[in-house]
Amino acid sequence: MLKRTMSLMLVLILTMASVVGIASASTTTKETVINISDTTVTVDGQKASTSSSAAVYAGASIVYYEEGHDSSYGEGTDSDAHSAEEAADHTVVTITKPGAYRVSGKLSKGQLAIDLGEDAASDPTAVVTLILDGVDITNTVAPAVIFYNVYEPYSNTEDTKGIVDLSDAGAQVILADDSVNTVSGSYVARIYKEGTTKKLHKYDGAFYSKMSMNISGEAKETGELHITATNEGLDSELHLALNGGKVYIEAQDDGVNTNEDGISVTSINGGYLHVNAGLGAEGDGIDSNGYLTINGGTIVTMANDRSPDGGIDADSDIIINGGTVIALGTRNDASSSTSKQPFIELSFATTQAVGSIIKLTDAEGKELLNHTAEKNFQSVTFSSADLKLNTEYHLYMNGVQQQYTGNSFGMMGGGFGGNPPTGGNGQAGQGTPPTGERPEMPEGTPPEIPDGMQGMREGGFNRDGQNTTVSGEGSTAFVITNSVHSFSGISEATDNNDKTKVTFTVNKGAGIQSVASGESIVLEGVTASAAVPESDIQLTVTDVPSENYSETYLLSELKGDLSKIMPKEDGQYRLTIAVVSSNETYTGVSQWQFAIGVLPFTDVKSNDASYNAIKTLYEKGIMIGTSSTRFSPNSPVARATAITTLGRLLKIEQTESSSFNDVVKNSWYSGYVGWAVESGLVIGDGKGNFMPKANLTAEQMKLVISRYVELSGLNISVDDLFPNTLTGTMTRAELATLLSKLL
C-alpha cells in the first residue's frame, strides 16, 4: 500500500511540475510571435525568411507520399498517394531554434513544422514551446502540425511502468486562454529509405510528434484544440501527456495514439478530452501501444461501432488514478486492478443504439453518470471520484433498469465455463451433486468451492459436457469490490417488463468445450426457448479480460456458419447470445466461457511459478477452479478437496465408507474419502470425524503422500516433494505444484 501511495504521489508531483513549469515558460520567456496566412507569414511583425538558417522560415518542401511509385518506394496504396501539384500548394512554416513561439492565423493549405536538427534528441536545451493562440491549419497531404526533431528525455527502450514526467520534453504545446485552434490534417504512409525497406517517413496523425509531447493549457485552462483527421488524430511516437485545456478530436482511425510497442505512455493528467474516433473502417478512441495512465481531467471517448475497437485501448496496463472517464466502444480494454480510483466496466449483451441514455445511480437514486451516446456501442468503462467500492449501484438504459449475468468472478445463474479441454480424463462429477442456491461471493478471495462444482447451479462437472448452458438469471445490484469491476451480459431486468424470457442452448445442449492450441472450438447450433426471429438474436464473442478480440453478428447474418464468429488464437473467451434490446416481445441472455490453449482463470498468470502445474492438472480434469474464471491459487485447500484431487490424479476407484460421522454419503467427495480410508491414507481426528471442510496443512498432506508412497512401493523421495518452504496451511497453488510432481 505504501509503495502504491508513493507512486501516486510521484505522478501528482510530476503532473504539477509539468503544468507549472510550462505556464511559467510561457510568461517569463520572450515569445516569438508568428502570424500565418495564405498570403504572408510574419515573424514578430516582419515577413518570414525563406532561409533554412533562420529561427523561423517559410517555404520548405513538405514530406508526403508521392503518387506514381511502385512497391519499392513504400507501403502506401493509391488512396495514400498525392500529386506533386497538390503537395506544392501547401505552405510549410518551420521552427528551427529553441524557444517559445506564439502562433495565430490561418493556412488553408499548410503545415507548422518544428525541426531543431538531428542532434536535438540528446540536447536538453532543444525545447520548443508552441503556444497555439487562434490557429487554423488544414493539410490534405500530411500532418498539419508536426514535431520532427526536439529533445527526447526518454529512451524508446525504457519501460516506465506507465509513469512519465514530460515537463522537460522538447515538444511542448500550450493552448492559449480563450483561444480556439483548429487543425485538419492528413498523414504520410510509410516511405522507405532508398534501396531498403527501412522506415524513412511514416506519420499517421493530423497532429504529430516524433518525440514525446506535452500538451497543457494556460492559466485559465480555457484554450481549445479541435483536430479533424483523415487517419489518426493526435499522435506521438513515444510518450504523450495531456495536462490541461480542451481537446476535441474527430478521426477516421484512432483518435489518440502512442506507438512504441510496450513502452509508450499516454498520460492524461487534467483538462478535457473528447474523442470521436473510428469514423472510417476502424479505430480506437485512445490507443496506446504501451500504457494508458489517467490521473485527472475529464475524458469522453468513442470508438468505431462496427469493428472490435474500444474507447480505451492499451497493449500494457490501463491505470485510472483520478478524473472522470466515459469510454464507449464495441469492447474496451480491461483496466488494471492497480488503479487507485474505482471503475466499472459494462459489457452489454447486444449493441446499444446511438442516442441511448446511460444512467448509473446509487441505491438512493443519486446519479453518478448520465450520458447520451453519440454512436452505437456495446461496452462502457466509467470512473469518477464519486464511484465507491462495496456500494450498490443501479444501471438504466433509456429509463429501463438493467441486470447483468456475469462479472469478474465468472457467470451467474448457473453458467459454467471452466470445462477442461476436450479429451481430459478427469473423474469429477461422480456421485450425487448437491443442490441449492448459488453461494454469495464475498469480497476478495472467493470461498473454497469443491473442484468440479464450479459455477453450476446443480453442481458437478460433467465430463461429457452436458448442461453447461447459462440460465440467464441476473442481478440488478452492481457492486464494485477490490476484485470485481466488470459486469457482462447486461440487458433489461426481466422482473420489470412483460416480455417473454428466453434462454439459449448451443451444440444441442452440450455447451462449449475448451480446446488445446491449434484446435477449433465447436459451435454448430443455437437453439432458443421461444420463436425469436434469427434477425433479433445477437451473438458476441470477446476475449476475457477484454484485450484484443471481439466479433458480433446477428444469427441471421451468419447464415448457418457459426464458425465465422469463433476465435482461433490461444486465449480465454466469452460467448454471449441475447435477444436484441429493440425486440418488443422477448428478452433474454445466455453466456458461456471457454479457452483455447490457455487456462481460463484471470487470477493465474503465465509467469506465475505454479502456472504450468495448474495448467497440467486443469487439462487433465484433476483441478478445475473455484469459479469459471478464478482458480484462487492463494486460497487454502479443504481436506475433502485434497483427497478428491489426489484420487482423480491416481484414477482410483471410488468407494463409500461409514468410517466418519461428518462425511455425507454419496457426496462429491465421499467416494474419494472412502478410498483413502480403505487405503490407510487418512484416519481423521480419532473421534470419528474426517473434518472435510477444515483447511489442510502441508504436514498433513506430507503424511498422506508418505503413506501412499509406502503402500504403493513407488521410488519417490517424499522430502524432495516437500521443500522446507512448504509449511503451514497449504494453498491451492501449492497443492497443484505438489500433485504435478506425481504425474
Keyword list:
743 residues; alpha/beta; 27-stranded mixed beta sheet; 9-stranded mixed beta sheet; 46 strands
Tell me the overall shape: elongated
What number is the mean pLDDT? 86
> Which bin fits the share of residues in helices?
10-25%
Radius of gyration: 30 Å
Uncertain residue segments: 1-27, 409-420, 422-472
Total of helices: 9
- Count of extended strands: 46
β-strand amount: 25-35%
- What distance lies between the first and last C-alpha atoms, to the nearest angstrom? 40 Å
The structure class reads alpha/beta
Largest sheet: 27 strands, mixed
Can you describe what's shown?
It is a single chain. With 743 residues, the protein is of the alpha/beta class. The protein has nine helices and 46 strands. The chain has a 27-stranded mixed beta sheet that branches. Helix 5 (639-650) packs across helix 6.
Give the gist of this structure.
Helices cover 13% and strands 31% of the residues. The chain is of the alpha/beta class and 743 residues long. Strand 42 (537-543) and strand 43 (550-554) form a beta hairpin.
Topology:
Elements: H1 2-28, E1 31-36, E2 42-43, E3 46-47, E4 56-58, H2 84-88, E5 91-95, E6 99-107, E7 110-115, E8 128-138, E9 145-149, E10 171-175, E11 180-185, E12 188-192, E13 199-203, E14 205-209, E15 213-217, E16 224-229, E17 232-236, E18 240-242, E19 246-251, E20 256-258, E21 265-268, E22 272-276, E23 286-288, E24 291-294, E25 298-302, E26 312-314, E27 318-320, E28 324-329, E29 343-352, E30 357-362, E31 367-372, E32 377-383, E33 392-397, E34 400-403, E35 406-407, E36 410-411, E37 478-479, E38 486-492, E39 500-501, E40 504-506, E41 526-528, E42 537-543, E43 550-554, H3 555-558, E44 571-579, E45 586-587, E46 589-596, H4 611-619, H5 639-650, H6 670-678, H7 698-712, H8 718-721, H9 732-740
Parallel strand pairs: 1-6, 5-7, 6-8, 7-9, 8-10, 8-11, 9-14, 10-15, 11-16, 14-17, 15-18, 16-19, 17-20, 18-21, 19-22, 20-23, 21-24, 22-25, 23-26, 24-27, 25-28, 29-38, 39-45
Antiparallel strand pairs: 1-2, 2-3, 4-5, 12-13, 28-32, 29-32, 30-31, 30-33, 33-34, 33-37, 34-38, 35-36, 35-38, 40-41, 42-43, 42-44, 44-46
